[in-house]
Amino acid sequence: xxxxxxxxxIVLIGCIKAKTLDDLKNNYLEMIxxxxxxxxxxxxxxxxxKTGDMGDKESTKCLFACVYKKTGMMDDKGMLDxxxxxxxxxxxxxxxxxxLKKGLAYTEACKSVNDAPVTDGDRGCDRAALLFKCTTxxxxxxxxxxxxxxxxxxxxxxx
Length: 159
Known about the structure:
Elements: H1 5-11, H2 21-38, H3 43-50, H4 58-71, H5 82-93, H6 97-110, H7 125-138, H8 141-149
InterPro entries: PBP/GOBP
Organism: Manduca sexta
GO cellular component, one term: extracellular space
């Protein structure tokens, strides 16, 4: 059994202070549960993710693509949706100008993933791996979230 709360940190720009954080986490957990049924991860995958490294497994990359798409951060062509991601940032950080700046800077820094060549077309799995890497490089707090959130609660078994 594993905790998937850590994905909320990766999926929506670090440790978010949302208007209703519990609702946000529940929403993301629901998406993660749906995506893990199609793209399960193993103990080893989870341990690797905790270090801020996605590894090279297709199922892990596609799990993130699935969640990014369901959150609106990635469009149906497998591209980072910069406008939608900025809207998400503005929604959840509108009352905190420092965090808003960081979120918008993150989007600016990571939008270059859309220019990178990928081999899986519009599936988005390769680009999700690039976005994950960009996220961990540009938001160091994300790695911290892994350790804080992992083991907080058990929600489902993984492969």
